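Take a look at my tokenised protein here and describe the backbone shape.
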Amino acid sequence: MGATVALTMVLGIGTAGAVGASEQPSADPSQILRPGLGVSPNQTAVNAQIQTARARLAVTSRQSHAGTPEPITHPQLDHAGSGLSALPHTQVTAPNLATPSTSSLPGLDVSSYQGNVNWAQVAADGAQFAYVKATEGTYYTNPYFAQQYNGSYSAGLVRGAYHFANPSYSSGAAQADYFAANGGAWSADNQTLPGALDIEYDPYGSECYGLTQSQTVSWIAAFLNEYHAVTGRWAAIYSTTDWWTTCTGNTSNFAANDPLWIANYNSTPGQLPAGWSTYAFWQYADQGTFPGDQDTFNGSHDQLVSLANNGPNSGPTNDFSISANPSSLSLVAGTSATSTISTAVTAGAAQTVNLSVSGLPSGASASLNPTSVTTGGSSTLTINAGTAHQGGYTLTVTGTGTSATHSTTVSFTVRRHHK
């Protein structure tokens, strides 16, 4: 579970560039980055990424940046969702124990706040993947990273590392190099996810780190491009729709390449940031079955492994179903009747569905109210027999979403006027 603001204030000591007195020295990155406890056939490539990142960091660390460094007092308490847990944003529902409403793979994310993790127990409880905090800014490495990163691998989980961004402190490129040199390198071994950029509420100052929306977008682009240059992978992006909209202007610039790790402590992921039609990961609670935060992967285990091996960057495409109740009506000429058209999410995230009706006989009319719904919502279909001839007819109600189109039918019979 994430630390509260009160705890942060009590434990917050030190100055910019320093970490809390309780922190331990970080392990050697060459040991941290071993895919398993044994020697990996991909270790040469991983070591090459580390050396490249270190060399580039010597240059990028001197780059100018738009932010003004803030005092760094509690990096050991910052983690994916720490701002979401502490701030009273509308996306948080107490006591933060939401349960995913769709079938997906369970997982977790951890940081130094969890310390040494019992990965055998985590695996026995059903976890399929884990993200582990590796770094923050260009000043902090997680002292428990080796135990958490290698331990999750040894327990059979697909795991990845994440970087807690601090755009006020140094450039995006410098932080990407620092991340790749200290835990964020990638290995093609079926169990290593692309690194993730945790970009969220500023734990040290203003919500957007003192940057304008355009400066924030430029900072993120610099990080992602540099990480890709060093590792060959596009990083996942962790954020909330609220922060993304406020601080980037809801840019869609990164949706084509970077998997989305959405945070929303509700029963559904909710509206996604612009450009993403679906999400790869969803952090839905800050406590639950596993240590740390609770997450799901939006797909099958094969799709998770595919993502780890540089395959498609998300799970299944968003999909939905559409149905009518009742699906059969009987009308007298000149009268009307109604049917409820319902939609439901069957895969991925919610989406907007535009509804239309076709197949009306001459003399009859029909209307839908509303004509656009969010999956999970419903519309009322009203059929007026008007002057249609006696007989049986079938209407087709079509729902057109952002990723799929489905239809359902409503049959109706027109009878003579009552005598």
In short: Residues 1-39, 86-98 have pLDDT under 50 and may be disordered. Residues 213-231 form the longest helix (19 residues). The chain has ten helices and 18 strands.
